[in-house]
Amino acid sequence: MSTPLQKASVLIEALPYIQKFHGKIVVVKYGGNAMINEELKNAVINDLILMQLIGMQPVIVHGGGPEINQMLDDLKIESRFVDGLRFTDQKIMEVVEMVLVGKVNKEIVKNININGGLAVGVCGKDGNLLICEKKKSKVDLGFVGDIKRVNAKLILSLMQDGYIPVVSPIGVDASGQSYNINADTAAGAIAVALGAEKLVLLTDVAGIYADPQKKDEIITELKVSQVDELIQNGVIDGGMIPKVQCCVNALQGGVHTTHILDGRLQHSILLEVFTKSGIGTMVTGD
């Protein structure tokens, strides 16, 4: 058990980071195991509330894959993935929107509010927050979208009024058609539009491994100039590739630092933001 002196030391270590990031925007992509495990869920919610109370401005962009899978199974609707993206026909789109906007988003908002925070849930259709077009790819993905424009004013207005915005990654095109957007991609685009200090991606791995086979050492800091070589060498592979590319796009769009963190570890956000050693992998510009 920590002694009072140890607790005080933790606060002192955090002080310069609290000062540095006061008033700064931090976009957190919330997904994976951290959304399912109740203990982890509470830890993430409390991290975000604490960040706001000490003067930071958190924005949450959430996924909801397991919940969508469960609903599709219950409705006996077959689902498949192409290069990590869910093929989305009109029937699946209706389920995705129902689950993300009507269930997952409202649960996150509720959990923030009952734990002392103040949150408002929105989706990309609200106030034309996320204007999309159909994603161009070698294989038709249906109603999977690429973001063309982010209405940052809506999110900024919510933060100025003291709310934590909670965003469902559902977009809309000029005709009103809904689109399913990858949550990492949506978080990155929103971070760029807001001029965020940090983009944090919570995942179900500890970070980028120096050797994906051994998984015994994490690359703590990665420069954009190193990314292509690590992908070619297989150090960055599979589902980590789009996450790293999301970080690169965010950095090139003006976000200061990006982080890939283990959402299975309690208070991983606080450990990364407010300690000298940090955890996970920080991806930075050159």
Description:
By secondary structure, this protein is an alpha/beta fold. It has one domain: Carbamate kinase (3-Layer(aba) Sandwich), CATH 3.40.1160. It contains 9 helices and 14 strands. The strands form 4 sheets. It has an 8-stranded mixed beta sheet with strand order 5-8-2-1-11-13-14-12, sandwiched between helices. It has a two-stranded antiparallel sheet with strand order 3-4. Strands 6-7 form a two-stranded antiparallel ribbon. Helix 3 crosses helix 4 and helix 6 packs parallel to helix 8. The longest helix has 25 residues. The chain is globular, with a radius of gyration of 19 Å. It starts with a helix and ends with a strand.
Please outline the helices and strands.
Elements: H1 4-20, E1 25-30, H2 38-53, E2 57-62, H3 65-74, E3 81-82, E4 85-86, H4 90-114, E5 119-123, E6 130-134, E7 145-150, H5 152-160, E8 164-168, E9 170-172, E10 178-180, H6 183-194, E11 198-203, E12 221-223, H7 224-232, H8 240-252, E13 257-262, H9 268-274, E14 281-284
Parallel strand pairs: 1-2, 1-11, 2-8, 5-8, 11-13, 12-14
Antiparallel strand pairs: 3-4, 6-7, 9-10, 13-14
Helix pairs in contact: 3-4, 6-8
